[in-house]
Each structure stands twice: as C-alpha cells, then as structure tokens.
Specification:
CATH superfamily of the largest domain: Dihydrodipicolinate Reductase, domain 2
Number of domains: 2
Helix content: 25-40%
Largest sheet: 9 strands, mixed
CATH topology of the largest domain: Dihydrodipicolinate Reductase, domain 2
Shape: globular
CATH architecture of the largest domain: 2-Layer Sandwich
Order of helices and strands: EHEHEHEHEHEHEHHHEEEEEEEEEHHE
Radius of gyration: 20 Å
Number of strands: 17
CATH class of the largest domain: Alpha Beta
Distance between the termini: 36 Å
Structural class: alpha/beta
Strand content: 15-25%
Length: 363
C-alpha cells in the first residue's frame, strides 16, 4: 500500500480488463499501478482508454508481481492461463481477483485453492452477477423470508457466443474453452447456487449433478449474429453448444441450469426461484408478504439482460472486495466458495462420460 491506497496490477489486457481498471480507478482506496499482458501495445491501449498516467507496463508476470506497491492482482487473462497466474500471484502474497472461468480442470482448481490457502491472501471470483441489482434484490427478499424455504431454482445462460467476441478463437477450442458451461454457463450455475440458499451471504452446497449435452453448432462452420440478424461463416465450436444440468444441494433444494450457445435470439439470462411461500420469475414477484396480491409485482430494477461487460456490475464487485481486504474478512464469492460452482461444471463433464449421476465433492 502506497499513499494510503492499495496498488492494483491488471494482468491481461483484453475486453473485460477495461471494466476492472474503471472500477479500481473509481474506488477511493485503490490505484492501478501496473498493467501486464502478452503485448505491450495492449497495455498502453488500456491505460490510454482509462486516462492512466505513471503506470508501468509488463509482458512478464513475474516481473510485474514485484513492481513496487502492488497489493492486488486482477487476473483477466484467458481461462486456460488462470491457474498458473493465480498460483504465481498467491505465492507473491497478493490479493487476487479471478475472472471466470476459474480453471480448466479439477486438478488446476485444487492447486489454486492450495496456493491461496497457504498464502492466506484474499480472493474474489468474478461471478459478477451476484452484484447485479436484480440479484441483490432477490437475495434480500429470500433472506427476508418473502419466498419461504427455497426448494427449486432455475437459471439459463442463453447467448449465441461467436466470432464477434474477442476471445472466441481460444474460447471455441476444446483445449482452451473446454465446454460451453465453463466458458459462459458457469454464471448460471453460480446464480442457481446463490438463490438456493436463504442466507444473505451464502450459496447452497452441491451434492449431486446429472447432465445432458447436445445442440446444433458443434463442428458447423456457420454462426448466427444477432446484431445483424444474419448467419455467416465462422470457425466452429469444438464442443456441444447446449448443456442442461440438474443439481442437488445439501439443504434439500434442487436446480435446473442450462447454457445455450445455439439460440437464435438476443442474449438472455432468465431466472426462476421457487419457495414454500412465494416465487420470483425474473423481475416479477409473488409472495405471502402481500396477502391481497392479484397479479405479479414488478420489481423496478436492472436485469442481467446484456452480455456487454460495460453492463456488468464490476464496480459493486470491486468495492466489495476492497472492503473485504480493508476489514480482513472473506468475500462470499471467494475462491473457496466459487470453486463449488466450478466443480459442478466439471461434474457435468464426467457425467457425459459415465452416463451416471456424479457425487460432490469430487476432490
């Protein structure tokens, strides 16, 4: 910490890093002091966009980690690099923001948790929708018993991921992206867990997963572009574009989660939460708290209705994480908790192989 502020290293200068930089710039307790990436030009571009001056640029993470004043590392690299980046940052004693997906294998996930636990550093994973205003309102209503005991949740990530995305070339490949659920659907997995537990800062603990995969895009050199409402030639996905998961939790609740990269429609993230005393469907509420209710109550709030990173509540997430560091407490979305969401996606992959339900934990 220098000048009373926590110094931030942004590692990875892709699309999402701009929002990380903006959020830390706006927090009065943090300052971006360095940016590292594979290309110096990318670092310079991000700094220029944010109006940053006196910021160091690196193409070597090890050198960036010893830059004077770095307290927090924000890992914004492609997902197949997250494990080595997080382990290096933990070993350097830095607090860490980890973009999703957390890791590409169960072994990587375990190694990351071990490194963080040994270093005793703080972490937060960018399951950023936990800070979406609708999500925050729904979680407060659940905690306030507006829905009673939660017994079933649904969350769906419906998005025609394609070549418009700057990370598509790596994300579409099985060796880098692994699966649709890992690349994007993990947001829906985490949402389902988050809403299946009543505690304000708790997510349900998964115990069993069964899953199916299929769809229409794997291997096809054509994609739908909802920006222009046209189809065009593009490199194919190397994994199934559709996955549907059933999840059981230790509190008795269940979830249905899906990811759909083949949908011919704009981005959507529908949610449903069913309790013994009420229901939420997107921003519509039916609750025992309103005994004279004759129609759905509309919650006037911001929905998770855009895939654009500028629409995501990164400011709320980073402010939350900085507060956790300053007050020496763990985030509700730290690596230990978020790993449970990630493990569900790995259980689905195993289920495709065995055709049997997968018990959790897998480690």
């Amino acid at each position: 910490m220098s000048d009373g502020k926590l110094g931030v290293l942004i590692h990875g200068a892709g699309w999402v890093s701009g929002e990380h930089i903006k959020a830390f710039n706006n927090n009065p307790h943090t300052e971006v002091v360095a940016i590292s990436s594979r290309r110096l030009e990318s670092c310079r571009q991000r700094a220029a966009e944010a109006g940053l001056e006196n910021v160091a640029f690196y193409t070597d993470l090890d050198k960036a980690l010893v830059h004077e004043g770095v307290d927090i590392v924000s890992v914004c690299t492609p997902q197949h690099l997250h494990a080595e980046n997080v382990i290096a940052a933990a070993q350097a004693g830095k607090h860490i923001v980890i973009e999703k997906a957390i890791a590409n294998t169960l072994e990587e996930l375990t190694a990351m948790r071990d490194a963080v636990n040994q270093a005793k550093v703080k972490t937060v994973v960018s399951f950023v929708l936990r800070w979406n205003p609708l999500f925050e309102t729904a979680k407060e209503l659940i905690a306030d018993d507006a829905l009673g005991d939660i017994y079933f949740t649904e969350a769906d990530y419906e998005h025609d991921i394609g070549s418009w995305w700057t990370g598509y070339e790596e994300g579409r490949q099985k060796k880098y992206g692994v699966s649709a659920m890992l690349v994007g659907g993990c947001h829906a997995v985490d949402a389902a867990r988050w809403f299946a537990e009543k505690g304000r800062n708790e997510a349900a603990i998964p115990t069993e997963v069964f899953a199916y995969s299929g769809g229409c895009r794997k291997g096809r050199e054509v994609e739908y572009d909802y920006f222009t409402n046209t189809w065009r030639k593009a490199p194919p996905l190397e994994y199934d574009d559709l996955e549907v998961l059933l999840v059981k939790y230790d509190n008795g609740a269940m979830s249905k989660v899906s990811v759909n990269f083949g949908c011919v429609m704009p981005y959507a993230f529908p949610i449903e939460i069913f309790g013994t005393k009420g229901t939420i469907r997107d921003n519509h509420l039916w609750s025992h708290k309103f005994p004279g209710q004759k129609d759905w109550i509309t919650i006037p709030t911001v929905l998770p209705e855009s895939a654009d990173v500028t629409h995501h509540p990164f400011q709320r997430q980073m402010d939350h994480f900085v507060e956790c560091i300053l007050n020496d407490r763990e985030s509700h979305c730290n690596l230990a908790d978020a790993a449970l969401s990630q493990e569900i996606t790995f259980a689905a992959l195993r289920c495709y192989e065995t055709k049997q339900p997968v018990q959790l934990p897998m480690t």
